[in-house]
Write a structure and sequence with these properties.
Elements lengths: L1 H14 L6 H28 L7 H19 L5 H12 L5 H4 L13 H28 L3 E4 L9 H4 L12 E3 H11 L1 H8 L7 H6 L14 H13 L10 H9 L1
């Protein structure tokens, strides 16, 4: 009976909690604006410090050769069989074909561009240090506030996630503290950043957290072009030519009638 009475008292306390109307103006709105403009600032800083990507002539040539074979496999039905065979021979012929002659030695792992490591460290610093600084700023000015309540009941397992910085055992699980609301804004503005800045922007924290090695993309070991050439050559050899324009004249006449 005593436990039931205490539980009933706790429920009444949770239901009687009222928020000051000024919290929305002085806590919720500033957190949203600070988080949004911080993302914009970081995006433009990343654009300023991002090094210009150098165009490697050898890699560009290899990419175009690989693309030539893929286009031939996909659209070979629109050229005659003899033309398809000559193009396939030009790419896959032993010792003289492009896939057999245009080969280069790939450096072993760990022998890449040393400046790539500096770029990686720079990106990590620009991602993590400002985020930690802004988290400390939010915690300094807005710590201890209860900002809002979710419109559905939650279990007690959500208290630690939604009520960071507010240690109250009598507070219902549906209430959200200011620090938790900051993290919700931090990782929940992806659609807004995409709408304002476009796809692939540097303001998206959820992508950086989901893929911590995103800053190292393009700096790792490149695949061996020889293996890619062999795979494309094998795919071309087993490709069966089907002439798609065999009855094109008859179909055109049927449409014009």
């Amino acid at each position: 009976a005593i436990l039931a009475q205490e539980a009933d008292t706790s429920r009444r306390r949770m239901a009687d909690l009222l928020l000051d109307s000024d919290i929305g103006l002085w806590v919720v709105v500033p957190i949203v604006l600070i988080t949004f403009f911080f993302g914009l600032l970081r995006h433009y800083i990343m654009l300023l410090v991002k090094p210009a990507k150098k165009l490697d002539r050898v890699q560009l040539t290899e990419s175009n050769i690989i693309l030539k074979g893929r286009l031939l496999r996909q659209n070979g039905g629109y050229i005659p069989k003899t033309s398809f065979a000559s193009r396939r021979s030009f790419l896959c012929q032993k010792e003289t074909g492009l896939y057999k002659s245009k080969r280069r030695s790939v450096p072993p792992p760990g022998m890449g561009d040393p400046s790539a490591m500096n770029d990686m460290m720079k990106g990590q610093l620009l991602n993590n240090v400002p985020m930690m600084a802004m988290g400390g700023l939010i915690n300094w000015f807005f710590s201890g506030f209860v900002t809002l309540k979710v419109p559905f009941p939650l279990t007690t397992q959500f208290k630690q996630m939604l009520q960071r910085g507010v240690e109250l055992t009598t507070l219902g699980s549906s209430w959200v503290s200011s620090m938790s609301f900051y993290f919700i804004c931090l990782f929940g503005m992806r659609s807004i950043y995409t709408l304002v800045l476009g796809e692939g922007n540097a303001a998206d924290n959820s992508r950086a957290m989901a893929n911590p090695m995103a800053a190292t993309e393009g700096m790792g070991q490149m695949p061996d072009p020889g293996k890619v050439f062999d795979a494309e050559c094998e795919a071309l050899q087993v490709t069966r030519h089907v002439w798609l324009l065999e009855d094109a004249v008859d179909r055109a006449e049927a449409l014009l009638r």
